[in-house]
From TrEMBL:
Name recorded for this polypeptide: Transcriptional regulator, LysR family
An example Gene Ontology molecular-function term: DNA-binding transcription factor activity
Keywords: DNA-binding, Membrane, Transcription, Transcription regulation, Transmembrane, Transmembrane helix
Similarity comment: Belongs to the LysR transcriptional regulatory family.
Length: 305
């Protein structure tokens, strides 16, 4: 290992530039973001490949394709780069007087009505700590946590978390059936028979959270258990958009009750009774293998679940 490191196949900055090219799939865009010339970045990547004796990228006139070796280096280096950047940030916070920061990833399937509970108390109790928030897919949040690009994530968890991550808090999130007023009136006029209501619901246009998301997979499985085998008219990745489209009369949906807090004045949006309520679990996730900084732990403790 020491002999390999002594040959210095590349330094951290060159590794950063390589990752930037992979992320952008373009030497030109990577050069613009890095403030370097395209030829300079090309020479540095070629130097890495020469030192390693491996081809990392395949260049064409229109795009950049990552080789299997390049994919391996890209994924394996994510945590290294994230750890180095986080270490320098902590160093500046502890000894250079830099303002402390918490990096939070919030899943797109979590509505905007939740955010005051996540951040309001912290703005009051920890005014000296800034917060950088990103709205991402759950899979992207987990990847960013593993790479130390985020301090914590709030999401609906997959069946199995990566071993490098752990859950600090869990809370239930109940859902309700919603429809525009006109459709709600016809539903209420039906006999209170589960069969009649299920038949009516099966005929409606459904707006559903994308079934590629963790919440979507669980919701679609629950609907099948309820006998609601529907083909969605629209698949979306956020409940705020779904709620607005339902209020515009485009269909029915099952949405988080808490997400409706922002839409109390929408008269065209009505809740309908459900025989059984769908409930998902939301969690706060952090990295497992290193001590959580005090200001991050305090931030989590202040969240109103």
């Amino acid at each position: 290992m020491n002999e390999f490191l002594a040959t210095t196949p590349f330094d951290l900055y060159e590794l950063f530039l390589f990752r930037l090219v992979v992320q952008q799939r373009s030497f030109t865009r990577a050069a613009q973001l890095a403030g370097r010339t395209q030829s300079a970045i090309t020479r540095q990547i070629q130097g890495m490949e020469s030192s390693l004796g491996l081809e990392l990228l395949e260049r064409t006139t229109r795009s950049v394709r990552v080789t299997p070796a390049g994919e391996f280096l890209f994924h394996e280096s994510a945590r290294l780069i994230g750890d180095v950047e986080a270490s320098f940030q902590r160093l500046r916070e502890q000894f250079a007087g830099a303002r402390k920061e918490v990096r939070v990833g919030v899943s797109r399937s979590i509505g905007l009505a939740y955010l005051p509970g996540f951040f309001h108390a912290n703005l009051r109790h920890l005014p000296q700590v800034s917060c950088r928030v990103s709205y991402q897919k759950s899979a992207e949040i987990l990847t960013a946590l593993e790479a130390n690009e985020l301090d914590l994530g709030v999401l609906s968890p997959p069946k199995r978390l990566p071993q490098t991550l752990r859950v600090t808090h869990r809370f239930d999130d109940a859902f309700t059936l919603v429809a525009p007023a006109e459709l709600a009136a016809t539903f209420q006029a039906l006999p209170k028979s589960p069969v009649a209501r299920a038949a009516w619901l099966a005929k409606q246009p459904w707006l559903l959270i994308d079934d590629t998301t963790n919440t979507g997979q669980k919701l679609h499985a629950w609907m099948k258990r309820q006998g609601l085998k529907v083909e969605p008219a629209m698949r979306l990745d956020g409940f705020d958009l779904i709620i607005n489209l339902v209020a515009l009369g485009l269909g029915v949906s099952v949405v988080p009750i808490r997400a409706l807090a922002l839409y109390g004045r929408k008269r065209n949006l009505q809740r309908l009774p459900m025989r059984e309520r769908f409930v998902r679990e939301l969690v706060v996730v952090v990295r497992r293998h290193r001590k959580t900084p005090d200001h991050v732990a305090q931030f989590v403790a202040n969240v109103l679940f």
